[in-house]
């Protein structure tokens, strides 16, 4: 028996007054998980700054927010560049007001055995996931502290932060760093009233998934059977989780990474599926060949 379906898309988790007056800066907010989280924040009253490098993603994010009757702007930014981040925050402050919610969602990933990974490939992921999260968070905190504090940060982690991710060593290591950073900054910035939390999504298929993950959308029934909950997540469920973590109802939660995955990451048992090494999974043969 699978978990029941959630309430329909469009059902707000809170009234539109709960986050009224808040300004949320969402990196990678124009596609997939980022867009879903931004949309649910908007339903609860927040104004949204969609931050991305790609014009088409910026346009898609703003359109999604405006479709639910909320206010949104597009801000071009490369989270690897601290100066660009500072300029983006300046623009948002001028157009929407001071940012009091930051969601560090921008990420990069591609599957590859570690022995085949170039230094550039490693940095392509860690620079966005870990460095970008740090740069955006410190820019946010400096500005909040300067005006008296308050606000919240939500960092998007991953469950392989705790287990490792064979085939995605760069991303798993970076996400583990994000979880640790979340804990460190929660303590450092608590005296300033800034909460810092994480959110680790499970399987949430969506149309914006990168090409190497598109196969996950094909065999829906088989995919659902891999999750203890009996189904994959729906995007607005993740949006609700993010909105709660950024809301006044989570006012005493900080330094916590919330897993939203239908118990999937805990499914290890004494009887595991037959082990298949990473190179075989990717059809690369062995290193001896």
Structure description:
There is one protein chain. This protein has 289 residues and is α/β, with parallel strands linked by helices. The chain has one domain (23-281): NAD(P)-binding Rossmann-like Domain (Rossmann fold), CATH 3.40.50.720. 39% of the residues lie in helices and 12% in strands. It is built from nine helices and seven strands; from the N terminus they run βαβαβαβαβααβααβα. Helix 1 packs across helix 8. The protein is globular, with a radius of gyration of 19 Å.
SSE diagram, text form:
Layout: E1 23-27, H1 32-43, E2 47-52, H2 55-67, E3 72-76, H3 82-95, E4 101-104, H4 119-146, E5 152-156, H5 160-163, H6 169-189, E6 195-201, H7 220-224, H8 235-245, E7 257-260, H9 278-281
Parallel strand pairs: 1-2, 1-4, 2-3, 4-5, 5-6, 6-7
Overall pLDDT metric: 94
Strand fraction equals: 5-15%
Specify the helix fraction band. Answer: 25-40%
**How would you classify the helix and strand content by structural class?**
alpha/beta
Overall body shape: globular
Helices, by number, come to 9
The CATH homologous superfamily is named NAD(P)-binding Rossmann-like Domain
For the record, give the distance between the C-alpha atoms at the N and C termini, rounded to a whole number: 45 Å
Main pleated-sheet profile: 7 strands, parallel
Q: CATH fold name, please?
A: Rossmann fold
Q: Provide the spatial order of strands within the biggest beta sheet.
A: 3-2-1-4-5-6-7
Q: Are there runs of 5+ residues with pLDDT below 50, and where?
A: none
- H/E topology pattern: EHEHEHEHEHHEHHEH
């Amino acid at each position: 028996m699978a978990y029941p379906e959630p309430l329909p898309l469009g059902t707000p988790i809170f009234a539109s007054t709960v986050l009224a007056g808040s300004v949320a800066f969402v990196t990678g907010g124009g596609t997939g998980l980022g867009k879903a989280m931004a949309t649910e924040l908007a339903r609860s009253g927040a104004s949204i700054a969609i931050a991305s490098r790609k014009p088409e993603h910026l346009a898609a994010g703003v359109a999604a927010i405006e479709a639910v009757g909320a206010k949104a702007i597009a801000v071009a930014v490369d989270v690897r560049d601290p100066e660009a981040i500072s300029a983006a925050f300046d623009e948002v402050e001028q157009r929407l007001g001071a940012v009091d919610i930051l969601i560090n969602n921008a990420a990069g990933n591609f599957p590859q055995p570690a022995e085949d990974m170039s230094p550039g490939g490693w940095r392509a992921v860690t620079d966005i996931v870990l460095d970008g999260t740090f740069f955006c968070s410190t820019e946010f905190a400096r500005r909040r502290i300067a005006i008296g504090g308050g606000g919240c940060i939500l960092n998007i982690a991953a469950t392989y932060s705790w287990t490792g991710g064979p085939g995605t060593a760069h991303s798993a290591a970076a996400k583990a760093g994000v979880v640790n950073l979340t804990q460190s900054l929660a303590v450092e910035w608590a005296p300033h009233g800034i909460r810092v939390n994480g959110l680790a999504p499970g399987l949430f298929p969506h149309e914006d998934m990168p090409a190497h993950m598109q196969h996950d959308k094909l065999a829906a029934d088989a995919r659902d059977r891999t999750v203890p909950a009996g189904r994959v997540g729906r995007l607005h469920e993740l949006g609700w989780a993010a909105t709660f973590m950024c809301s006044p109802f989570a006012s005493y939660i900080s330094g916590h990474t919330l897993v939203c995955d239908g118990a999937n990451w805990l499914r290890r048992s004494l009887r595991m599926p037959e082990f298949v090494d990473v190179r075989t999974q990717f059809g690369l043969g062995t290193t001896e060949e």
